[in-house]
């Protein structure tokens, strides 16, 4: 035996990649369409919001594409404004959840043991506490408005993000490259900036995306209960509440906002699933 | 199921493993080998060579969507059973009583929420018909037989409270509980510390000899295999590459891949100062020194 | 631990409701004079120093005195108990039904995960979890009650539970609504837990000793699968409770949800506070119970030091 070589290992066959695109594609389409409608509504709607010339509870027509509500206002206009509102709530609350959550999580991860324990306990309580009740509490305090809703939903979501951040950051901080960095003199803040944040944020993308859908649903519930933002902010939830009493006479008004709600929430959820498929191919959702 | 008489205990003929679905693939391309009672066959190959899948196919435990083809016939007191194509219900009676298995990772192969004694009770109750005090005593005996000290304490413990080596002994006890005729050991020592490995292999050898069982030992480690197997089946990329007596394989491998394997193992051995003649047919297993239980 | 949590919640509620929101304005009308404002404040007791108010508040709580409603001067505690007659059965029956729906659907979706019908079940569960519960309520009402006249469109019989038949009849649609949505949501968790279990090696090893698929699942799979589900169930029960709060508005049921919403509208702080305190206590108790249950089943969690962290990881 002269030249001795170790047996050559052949790589396992490549995994089929087709599954991934379905979730992402469908989700992107649903979300995209509604997002476009919402954005357009800032510049143009078929009618002014309080234009009540249309006659009450009219069925869909060439003039009023979705009909009118019980006060004569155009429904299509309201649906468009509702899209804008839903997006605002989604992005707003997710932003709050991200900022507050990541900060708290990082704090808990780098702080002393007792601070970490205290924050963790707080987070456990906050996570167990239902979002809607928290939202009602904040509305009771500040009065019903868009800002109250966004704040409440955002804070509720922050707790979950904080816990996730804390766990991930702790794991990153235990890695050798962080120790190496610290040994060469980088302070805690520097370590966070250079290493921790970069390694933590991928884990947070999917939960944050999922929170978007939850936020839209929560705001819809709040508006339905009368605790959401008052007119002229036309929330789909409030539209449903108004349409409930006349559902047999004007079914469109009670059906369309609901369909759009479902479409947006599912769209965002599929988008989140699709992102998860792309980011972490070993995850279960592929099965 | 053919009525042809079987000479051995296990007979694999063109045994294959396939995945169905939109992109069908063949993972194991046809294995032909038979095993006589009391014989020990080693299967060696690298990761992805299909050796574990072959073992699962023999057990009839391939996870969906994997499907076995060809035939894997086992001689049972009730006649010949071909694992391929036999309904699960029938196979349940074959498993445990005729064929049994020990897997690679004992922490994953045992129930983390159930006390060890209780996990052992099932095969003892089902296959040996024991009850009450007799059952309890049999559990303790089974644990003692695999050389676990303080069987009472172990029986009351949960798996996370004992060491890796102890866990694998429990797994072996579980596999032997029904006194099977064929034991399949799928990389039983790979997940264990080197100092513990020798003890496990020694235990397996002794049990197999004492009970007159056949052994199907799967590993990627040739020296380990060489110490325990009479014949060796070499697999690569799901194909059977070579089959022959251990001594023959080591001395004069027919296939170039086998030659590579043997040479590589020998090469690693050269770095050990004390041991000489590594790879000889009766070298005591792993290239370690003292065997610790 | 539990008491700490509750104490924290109590404090937060106090801070938010009394200090930040000003209950005085509920009692006076616009344009009141300073004297009137002062008089109202005195009557409510909010002119005293905050620590004094807090002490009195805690004292009241310890004797289970939740104060009196601003609007109708009835004791809050009694009102809560009365309204529980509606909300409690609604929550519990919905929860039970949702579990009955979720377990088979989730298990089936996991078991047949790679088949088209398994995926369909999974998709249906995801859909159900995304639909707002009040919309389902509206749809069900319009079809089953206003349209086909099978069920009442709302309300609860005055005779309360003295006529159980009538009461249950009134609760049928609400229960169905909540159970469908909560059940779908729960089904996704059941599916996930089942997938996890089905892939476990101890099932395979158990089968290698001769156990049938059913036996292995029963003996080993169930208990292992239930552990993470217990926390989920506790959270689901809380969610069902919240769903009940919303649904009470859809179906005009006189329960706790109604009390809360009316209280917020009318700025009746004792009522709002009472319901929120009750809900908080409920949620915390459920979480605590789930924690204990998990420790009983899973011996790895029993070491109290590592237990806490492990429970968090599992939940």
Provide the low-confidence segments of chain A as ranges. Answer: 1-18, 283-287
SS content category of chain B = alpha/beta
Which regions of chain B have little confidence, pLDDT < 50, spanning 5+ residues? 276-293
Name the helicity range of chain A: 55-70%
Number of strands of chain B: 10
Largest sheet of chain A: none
Gyration radius of chain A, to the nearest Å?
24 Å
User: What is the averaged pLDDT score of chain A?
Assistant: 81
Number of distinct helices of chain B:
11
DSSP strand content of chain B? 15-25%
Order of SSEs of chain A = HHHHHHHHH
Task: Summarize the structure in words.
The complex is a heterotrimer of chains A (287), B (293) and C (315). By secondary structure, chain A is mostly helical. Chain A contains nine helices and no strands. Chain A has helices at 19-43, 75-110, 113-128, 131-142, 146-173, 176-183, 188-224, 236-244, 251-279. With 293 residues, chain B is of the alpha/beta class. Chain B is built from eleven helices and ten strands. Chain B is globular and about 55 Å long. Chain C is mostly helical. Chain C is built from 13 helices and no strands. The longest helix of chain C is centred in the C-terminal third of the chain and has 38 residues, at 213-250. Chain C is globular. Residues 305-315 of chain C have low confidence and may be disordered. Classes of the chains: A mainly alpha (287), B alpha/beta (293), C mainly alpha (315). Chains B and C meet through helix 2, helix 4 and helix 7 of B and helix 9 and helix 10 of C.
Task: Sum this structure up briefly.
Chain A has 287 residues and is an all-alpha fold. Helix content of chain A is 70%, strand content 0%. Mean pLDDT of chain C is 80; it is low at 305-315.
């Amino acid at each position: 035996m002269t030249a001795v070589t170790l047996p050559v290992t052949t790589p396992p066959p490549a995994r089929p990649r087709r599954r991934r695109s379905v979730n992402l594609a469908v989700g992107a389409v649903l979300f995209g369409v509604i997002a476009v409608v919402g954005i357009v509504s800032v510049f143009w709607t078929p009618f002014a919001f309080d234009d009540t010339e249309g006659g009450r509870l009219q069925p869909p027509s060439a003039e009023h594409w979705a009909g009118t509500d019980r006060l004569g206002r155009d429904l299509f206009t309201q649906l468009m404004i509702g899209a804008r509102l839903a997006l605002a709530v989604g992005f707003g609350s997710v932003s709050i959840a991200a900022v507050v959550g990541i900060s708290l999580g990082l704090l808990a991860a780098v702080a002393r043991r007792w601070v970490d324990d205290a924050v963790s306990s707080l987070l456990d309580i906050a996570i167990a506490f239902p979002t809607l009740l928290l939202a009602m509490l904040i509305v009771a305090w500040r009065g019903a408005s868009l800002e109250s809703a966004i704040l409440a939903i955002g804070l509720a979501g922050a707790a979950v993000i904080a816990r996730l951040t804390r766990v991930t950051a702790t794991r990153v901080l235990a890695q050798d490259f962080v120790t190496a960095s610290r040994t060469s003199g980088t302070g805690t803040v520097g370590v966070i900036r250079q290493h921790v944040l970069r390694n933590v944020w991928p884990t947070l993308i999917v939960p944050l995306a999922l929170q978007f859908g939850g936020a839209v649903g929560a705001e819809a519930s709040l508006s339905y209960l009368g605790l959401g933002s008052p007119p002229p902010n036309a929330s789909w939830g409030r539209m449903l509440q108004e349409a409930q009493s006349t559902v047999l006479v004007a079914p469109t008004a009670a059906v369309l906002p609901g369909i759009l709600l479902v479409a947006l929430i599912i769209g965002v959820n599929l988008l989140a699933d699709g992102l998860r498929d792309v980011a972490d191919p070993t995850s279960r959702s592929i099965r | 199921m053919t009525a042809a008489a079987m000479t051995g205990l296990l007979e694999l003929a063109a045994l294959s493993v396939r995945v169905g679905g939109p992109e069908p693939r063949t993972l194991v391309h046809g294995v032909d080998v038979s095993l006589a009672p009391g014989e020990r066959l080693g299967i060696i190959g690298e990761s992805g060579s299909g050796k574990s899948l072959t073992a699962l196919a023999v057990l009839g435990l391939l996870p969906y969507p994997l499907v076995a083809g060809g035939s894997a016939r086992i001689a049972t007191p009730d006649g010949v059973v071909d694992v391929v194509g036999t309904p699960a219900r029938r196979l349940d009676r074959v498993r445990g009583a005729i064929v049994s298995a020990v897997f690679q990772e004992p922490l994953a192969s045992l129930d983390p929420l159930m006390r060890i004694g209780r996990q052992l009770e099932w095969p003892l109750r089902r296959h040996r018909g024991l009850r009450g005090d007799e059952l309890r005593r049999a559990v303790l005996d089974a644990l003692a037989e695999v050389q676990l000290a303080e069987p009472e304490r172990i029986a009351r413990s949960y798996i996370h409270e004992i060491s890796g080596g102890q866990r694998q002994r429990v797994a072996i006890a579980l596999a032997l509980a029904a006194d099977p005729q064929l034991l399949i050991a799928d990389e039983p020592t790979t997940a264990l510390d080197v100092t513990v490995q020798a003890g496990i292999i020694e235990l397996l050898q002794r049990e197999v000899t004492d009970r007159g069982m056949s052994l199907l030992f799967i590993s990627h480690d040739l020296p380990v295999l060489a110490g325990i197997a009479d014949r060796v089946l070499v697999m690569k990329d799901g194909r059977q590459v070579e089959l022959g007596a251990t001594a023959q394989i080591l001395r004069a491998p027919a296939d170039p891949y086998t030659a590579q394997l043997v040479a590589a193992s020998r090469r690693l051995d050269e770095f050990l100062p004390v041991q000489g003649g590594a790879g000889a047919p009766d070298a005591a297993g792993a290239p370690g020194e003292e065997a610790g239980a | 631990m539990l008491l700490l949590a509750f104490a924290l919640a109590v404090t937060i509620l106090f801070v938010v409701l009394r200090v930040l929101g000003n209950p005085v304005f509920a009692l006076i009308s616009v344009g009141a004079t300073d004297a009137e404002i002062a008089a109202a404040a005195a009557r409510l007791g909010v002119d005293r120093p905050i620590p004094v108010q807090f002490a009195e508040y805690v004292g009241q709580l310890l004797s289970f005195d939740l104060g009196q409603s601003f609007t109708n001067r009835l004791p809050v505690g009694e009102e809560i108990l009365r309204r529980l007659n509606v909300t409690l059965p609604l929550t519990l029956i919905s929860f039970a039904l949702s579990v009955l729906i979720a377990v088979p659907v989730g298990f089936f979706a996991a078991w047949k995960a790679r088949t088209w019908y398994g995926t369909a079940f999974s998709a249906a569960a995801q859909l159900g979890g995304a639909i707002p519960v009040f919309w389902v309520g509206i749809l069900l009402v319009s079809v089953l009650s206003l349209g086909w006249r099978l069920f009442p469109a709302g309300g609860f019989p005055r005779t309360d539970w003295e006529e159980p038949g009538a009461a249950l009849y009134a609760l049928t649609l609400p229960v169905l609504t909540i159970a469908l949505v909560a059940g779908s949501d729960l089904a996704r968790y059941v599916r996930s837990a089942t997938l996890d279990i089905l892939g476990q090696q101890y099932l395979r090893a158990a089968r290698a000793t001769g156990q049938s698929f059913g036996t292995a699942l029963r003996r080993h799979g169930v208990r292992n699968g239930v552990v993470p589900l217990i926390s989920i169930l506790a959270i689901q029960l809380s969610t069902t409770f919240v769903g009940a709060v919303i649904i009470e508005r859809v179906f005009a049921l006189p329960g706790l949800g109604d009390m809360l919403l009316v209280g917020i509208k009318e700025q009746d702080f004792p009522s709002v506070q009472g319901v929120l305190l009750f809900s908080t206590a409920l949620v915390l108790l459920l979480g605590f119970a789930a924690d204990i249950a998990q420790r009983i089943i899973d011996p790895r969690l029993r070491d109290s030091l590592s237990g806490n962290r492990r429970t968090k990881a599992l939940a």
